[in-house]
Amino acid sequence: FLHFLKFIYVSWTTLNNFKTGSTEVNTLRMLLHGPVGAGKSSFFNSMDNVLQDRITTRALADSLSGKSFTMEVKKAGSYFPFTFTDIRGMEQEEGNGVHPKDIPKILLGHVKNGYIVKNPISEGNPKYNENPSLNDRIHCLVAVIPANSISLMEQIVIDQLRKVRQKARDLGIPQVIIMTKVDEVCPLVKGNLEKVYASKKIKEKVSLLGVPVNCIFPVKNYHDEDPGNTKMDILILKALLNIVNFASDYVLDQTDNE
Length: 258
Ligand SMILES: Nc1nc2c(ncn2[C@@H]2O[C@H](COP(=O)(O)OP(=O)(O)O)[C@@H](O)[C@H]2O)c(=O)[nH]1
Ligand SMILES: [Mg+2]
What we know:
By secondary structure, the chain is of the alpha/beta class. The chain has eight helices and six strands; from the N terminus they run H-E-H-H-E-E-H-E-H-E-H-H-E-H.
């Protein structure tokens, strides 16, 4: 049990002292995407909860407005130097939600906070940023996919996810997959979250995704638990630490190149 606490302490300290290490970028920006109900808002709330030890329903409330919005995690007197932007979940029908052709504009930082994503993204909009800098760009793409519906996911959702991932790959932006709801696919894992890496059912779901295992982070989000569940916190912190590291490497790499 002590090694759990040590992991939490070290991760928490690392995140608390984290700085981007680039003079051009003060905040690492992550984009959350994935089907409606995948657990994007819950994942943000879970991170917020782990970092602050309190449940917040901010993300859930904001997500109902249909706007793209950026969430920051408060820290004593300021904010952590990373944000998560939630684009409205991709709908089953093309035409609702974000159009795939607009994804590169979002990734390249043309879309400011508060942009109403159901409108086509156009240059006339006051929330359109003509000349985004490295600081405005998305530095890590985070796909949120629920473990319990991977095999049932509509082809159109799978295609949309693939298109977004392809755009990010073309732009060289790092990507991770957060696999939520691991408790819903395996009773063993539901009983003991530590079993997540040993579970055959989870391995099966991971292999269905067809991406390298080191980019997939299984989590169980906080939804009706009390805060401070060590095993849940560890998976959430592991995911967050990796996201921050991927984003940070990307920014340093881009800073060298410019
Ligand atoms: N069992 C379980 N339920 C989850 C998990 N993550 C999210 N949920 C539930 O799934 C539903 C959709 O989550 P939400 O965060 O609103 O999804 P979003 O549309 O992607 O923002 C909510 O009822 C959550 O409580 C999880 O890890 N395990
Ligand atoms: Mg949401």
